[in-house]
């Protein structure tokens, strides 16, 4: 006769600690490979020259995407990727203002297909109903057009992606006081990180002027400062490959407000009308 065997409490925690050590070992083993791959993908980002003829519509479009993501409970990664797709596409095309919401919807759907489970992808018919009432075939054609423009590759890491990755190293033993629970610190840090991630979307110049990994590191540092923690530590330097000096500039812009931010790209480049494709 087969008998059931349950682990005792000590056996359970012993097994749990063993699995945790194995997982940590696996993370360390593949960390360098992962960093190399994600860095290669980051380097594939389009050069953003801030020449969109539709820039004045951007605030409305980002607020619209943010509203849909909140209503549908989509992730920050989805929202940031959708905004990146929208920004880059607008930066290289002159679009009829009546079609901008259509472009925003398509950017969101493409991002959701990469970032969300299939049941959470926004329903196209619903988006059409509440916005422009354009036929589905137009959206399909636009989706293909955007994918062709991005050379069928939109798996590009954003600051939101990097933040989730860096969260593994956000706290060190020195950050945790004897009477403090790590879970509470993580919860409070996450609150400020989400706040900064949301604010980041509001200014395309700030969002696109720094690499996503550097911005994410600055977000982590700013959030740590909000809780009275040391700005940076060796653990984060080792994990992110950024030193305290590397993140100083975007960190100051975050803490002082974007009005103090000076967009180097806008000051050094003139609009190149030849790059703009009319659509």
Automatic annotation (TrEMBL):
Keywords: Coiled coil, Cyclin. It comes from Cryptolaemus montrouzieri. Residues 13-40 form a coiled coil. Residues 157-277 form the Cyclin C-terminal domain. InterPro entries: Cyclin, Cyclin-like_dom, Cyclin-like_sf, Cyclin_C-dom, Cyclin_N. Belongs to the cyclin family. Residues 63-148, 165-256 form the Cyclin-like domain. This is Uncharacterized protein.
């Amino acid at each position: 006769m087969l008998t059931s065997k349950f682990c005792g409490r000590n056996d359970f925690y012993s097994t749990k600690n063993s699995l945790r050590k194995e997982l940590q070992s696996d993370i360390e083993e593949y960390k360098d490979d992962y960093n190399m791959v994600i860095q290669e993908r980051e380097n594939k980002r389009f050069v953003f020259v801030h020449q969109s003829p539709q820039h004045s519509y951007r605030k409305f479009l980002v607020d619209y995407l943010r509203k849909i993501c909140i209503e549908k409970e989509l992730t920050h990664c989805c929202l940031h990727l959708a905004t990146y797709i929208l920004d880059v596409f607008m930066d290289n095309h002159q679009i009829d203002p009546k079609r901008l919401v259509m472009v925003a919807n398509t950017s969101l759907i493409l991002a959701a297909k990469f970032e969300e489970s299939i049941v959470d992808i926004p329903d196209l018919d619903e988006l059409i109903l509440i916005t422009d009432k354009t036929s589905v075939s137009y959206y399909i054609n636009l989706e293909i057009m955007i994918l062709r423009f991005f050379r069928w590759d939109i798996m590009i890491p954003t600051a939101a992606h990097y933040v989730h990755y860096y969260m593994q190293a956000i706290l060190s033993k020195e950050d945790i006081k004897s009477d403090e629970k790590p879970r509470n610190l993580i919860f409070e840090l996450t609150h400020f990180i989400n706040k900064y991630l949301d604010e980041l979307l509001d200014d395309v110049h700030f969002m696109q002027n720094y690499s996503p990994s550097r911005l994410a590191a600055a977000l982590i540092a700013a959030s740590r400062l909000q809780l009275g923690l040391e700005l940076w530590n060796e653990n984060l330097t080792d994990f992110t490959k950024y030193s305290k000096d590397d993140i100083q500039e975007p960190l100051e812009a975050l803490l002082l407000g974007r009005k103090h931010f000076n967009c180097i790209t806008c000051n050094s480049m003139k609009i190149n009308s030849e790059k703009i494709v009319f659509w």
